[in-house]
TrEMBL record, chains A, B:
This is Crossover junction endodeoxyribonuclease RuvC. The gene is ruvC. Its cofactor is Mg(2+). It is an enzyme of class 3 (hydrolase). The lineage of its organism: Bacteria, Bacillati, Actinomycetota, Actinomycetes, Kitasatosporales. Its main location: cytoplasm. It is found in: Cytoplasm.
């Protein structure tokens, strides 16, 4: 099972591909960051994110895309940008019939560290260990994207298979939308 | 000058095309709503919005796209969906090199009614009058989309010309992103 994790953001969008199944050692396939210039206008930034995500999908052909679920507790301006970047990531995946899952930050932290309140350093350390890397991926957005992918592989494998079957069905069916 | 106004939303995305210049009577070219089923998953809804917006761009070839600027004062869940739908609209426009402008709800209300606090009915009545329609467009999202387009035509014509020149330049330049 190959999953692309996306930690959405306008300035830095973390992306990480992990392969494996629950209960076995996982493998990092790729990790990186899609960046857009803060001084570009919003439309162009969204186009740049689209191009970046498309490249990752083309190159790594994930079976699932896991995106961080956006909340609006935080800074209003940041959250709007995050929501917009996440929309582009979801759009790119759904357009190809790849099932998209959303996981909250605390679900991701709990999955990789055992605690929903873990800090960035702890998440980075566990991602490094679980994927047997030499050092924590930088920046933190890249590590978070890998953590999202790991979280997705470990959560509800049965649900994933169901979702994938539905996505495959709707991608090939004449009317592409589904309940 | 032909403007597509977009009142973003996941369930109903209002779209309206208005043609004209400031100081002359305006003409409605088209109005409608892009709908997505509330029970579909988010990725598929965003794809449906993309397809709908693309159809409007193909059919009406606007020179500008005006999108309502999303704030997060309101209901959190609604705002996230609105931000995501607006991202898709901006992405579709920017991908074609069409300049995108954002206007706040109060800017739009002030432009068409003279008051930033006008209610839906007042906006609908003024849209009907300004575009010389027989009745207010329904639903309200469609009227709001027309109001956005009118607002855009009336605000800062000089700025629009500059923006269009920049967009034309960046669309033809080898590196498509700009300051």
């Amino acid at each position: 099972m190959r999953v692309l994790g996306v930690d959405p953001g306008l300035t830095r969008c973390g992306v990480g591909v992990v392969e494996g199944v629950a209960g076995r050692p996982l493998t990092m396939v790729g990790v990186g960051v899609v960046r857009t210039p803060a001084d570009a206008d919003l439309g162009h930034r969204l186009v740049a994110i689209e191009q970046g995500i498309e490249q990752w999908l083309d190159q790594h052909r994930p079976e699932f895309v896991a995106v961080e679920r956006v909340f609006s507790q935080h800074n209003v301006r940041t959250v709007m940008g995050t929501a917009q970047a996440s929309a582009v990531a979801m759009l790119c995946a759904a357009r190809r019939g790849i099932p998209v899952a959303l996981h909250t930050p605390s679900e991701v932290k709990a999955a990789v560290t055992g605690s929903g309140r873990a800090d960035k350093a702890q998440v980075g350390a566990m991602v490094t260990r679980l994927l047997r890397l030499d050092a924590p991926p930088r920046p933190a957005d890249a590590a978070d994207a890998l953590a999202l992918a790991i979280c997705h592989i470990w959560r509800a494998p049965a649900q994933n298979r169901l979702q994938q079957a539905v996505a495959l069905h709707t991608a090939t069916a004449p009317k592409g939308r589904t309940a």
